[in-house]
Amino acid sequence: MIAKLRGILDETGADWAVIDVAGVGYLVHCSSKTLGQLGETGAACTVFTDLQVSENDMRLLGFASGTERDWFRLLTQVQGVGSKVALAILSVLSPEELQRACAALDAASVARAQGVGPKLAGRIVNELKDKAGALPSAPGMAVPLPRGGASADAVSALQNLGFKPAIAAQAVARAIDELGEGAAEGDLIRVALKRAAG
């Protein structure tokens, strides 16, 4: 399977690009965000790819990062989400924004994508909410917390209650913002539980 292309950006369209790799032009379908990151025609570029084969079609999808490709694969596992809808979602939401939307059950953000109604958006966030914390955090998603101390203990406590690491860390970070750095572990857990549940 073709996992990555490195070559020259030969041509682009509304939702596709042609990447010239050693004289062979690969047509890759991309989100508008990926197209915006490829650079100018004639420039060197790299795309992560996913090959989809159906009964009467072969289609190469291109992504600016491995994280975007991971989210594309997750999205297309949801009933009613094909490659076109998944690319439409990734055109309006970056992987970080999509991760936050799923973790927060924010269907309205997902519904901004063309071809995604409220019902489908609700299904997407419900089915992917548990997977949102399982994927490696995209750049900008990591929540730095000190090792040891009340905050680390609070994150650990939330994980023991079944929260994904990323969601637990985000909830505790919000609790620290609200209560201050010197807050006790019990207070952090209490506020973080409200933030994680809300």
Automatic annotation (TrEMBL):
Residues 73-92, 108-127 form the Helix-hairpin-helix DNA-binding motif class domain. One of its GO terms (molecular function) is ATP binding. The keyword Transferase does not apply. One of its GO terms (cellular component) is Holliday junction helicase complex. GO terms for biological process: DNA recombination; DNA repair. Residues 1-64 are annotated as: Domain I. The keyword Ribonucleoprotein does not apply. Keywords: Cytoplasm, DNA damage, DNA recombination, DNA repair, DNA-binding. Residues 152-198 are annotated as: Domain III. InterPro entries: DNA_helicase_Holl-junc_RuvA_I (IPR013849), Hlx-hairpin-Hlx_DNA-bd_motif (IPR003583), NA-bd_OB-fold (IPR012340), RuvA (IPR000085), RuvA_2-like (IPR010994), RuvA_C (IPR011114), RuvA_C_sf (IPR036267). It is found in: Cytoplasm. Transmembrane segments: none annotated. Gene3D superfamilies: 5' to 3' exonuclease, C-terminal subdomain, DNA helicase RuvA subunit, C-terminal domain, Nucleic acid-binding proteins. The RuvA-RuvB-RuvC complex processes Holliday junction (HJ) DNA during genetic recombination and DNA repair, while the RuvA-RuvB complex plays an important role in the rescue of blocked DNA replication forks via replication fork reversal (RFR). RuvA specifically binds to HJ cruciform DNA, conferring on it an open structure. The RuvB hexamer acts as an ATP-dependent pump, pulling dsDNA into and through the RuvAB complex. HJ branch migration allows RuvC to scan DNA until it finds its consensus sequence, where it cleaves and resolves the cruciform DNA. Belongs to the RuvA family. Has three domains with a flexible linker between the domains II and III and assumes an 'L' shape. Domain III is highly mobile and contacts RuvB. Homotetramer. Forms an RuvA(8)-RuvB(12)-Holliday junction (HJ) complex. HJ DNA is sandwiched between 2 RuvA tetramers; dsDNA enters through RuvA and exits via RuvB. An RuvB hexamer assembles on each DNA strand where it exits the tetramer. Each RuvB hexamer is contacted by two RuvA subunits (via domain III) on 2 adjacent RuvB subunits; this complex drives branch migration. In the full resolvosome a probable DNA-RuvA(4)-RuvB(12)-RuvC(2) complex forms which resolves the HJ. This is Holliday junction branch migration complex subunit RuvA. It comes from Tsuneonella litorea. The gene is ruvA.
